[in-house]
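Encoded backbone
================
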Amino acid sequence: MKKITHVGCGLFLCFGSLLSTHTIAADKFVSDVIYIVVRSDKNPQAQIVQKSLVSGTRLSVIEEALGTDNSPWTKVKTPEGTEGWVRSQNLSDKPTAAMQLAKLTSDDRDKAALQLEKENLQQQLTTLQEEHQQFLSDTEDMRQAATSATTLEEDHQRVLRDNQILQTQADALKAENDQLRDTDRFNHWLYGGALVLGGIILSFMLQGIGRSKRKSEWR
């Protein structure tokens, strides 16, 4: 019974070890724009066995496992033959962009540069077209505003001219009315004077007629 128990424990430990770590026969690369160190164990505090692996360094993967910080670590072998642990997040399955660019031929690099320049120019063209459309829209708004202002000014000037014409006509009517009033007053005065003069003449005539009758009676 004890032998069975020991065998079961051994199998369990082996199975647990297989679950926690697994061997991977592949190469990985140190990711872009970083320098990493290789430690003796999958622990951020473990001893450093190799310093400053530069971006793009090819590393042979031995196994992967969770570290003491519960983050994934990878056991690797450096080109110098040093074995140790590095954080998996600092590794990449593909060579870095700098390495891939370095492998390009001169023509490929020229094509890549031309393609990038073309994309930049296309973006600039799109931006300029948008700015041009906005400028046209703003110009149209300004033109319409200027047209409205011109129309308002023309209407204002027309109203002023019409007002001046009406004022001139009103002044002419007032002058004519004053003239008619003066003429009517003069006619009234003239008629009154003529009546008074006629009355005086008629009085003299009546007096003359009366004297003539008295003289006739005396005779």
The domain at 25-101 is CATH 2.30.30.40 (SH3 type barrels.). The helical segments are 2-20, 97-103, 106-218. DSSP finds three helices and seven strands in the chain.
